Amino acid sequence: MDYKYRNVLALAYVGDSVYEIYIRKHLFLQGIEKVNDLQKEATNYVSAKGQARYLREMINQHFLTEEELQLVTRARNHKSHASPKNTDVATYHDATGLEALIGYLFLSSNDKRVEEIMNFIIGG
Length: 124
Hints:
single chain, mainly alpha, globular
């Protein structure tokens, strides 16, 4: 099934979960085992500001394919009725774009590309 044209907010919903499990696994494997410390470190990655920053880095470094950029753009431009918490609208839309991309790749069983993107983010 081609998930590319599915609801981008639904893709972002799935992508958010995938993204968070990668981050949690990474932090745990770094030796952080106290839940409060895990949560504190995770916010550097899973906040809208963090996700938007990583997306912009990927775009600036031409890391994403044209197809991936199209999906990100569609997700960023999607009219959402949600109000962003603790951030501006542009940052929120960028974060949604990254989450939608990860959701799309995950649902498309493109595990290799999800790994590449997450390694870019965590510096692996």
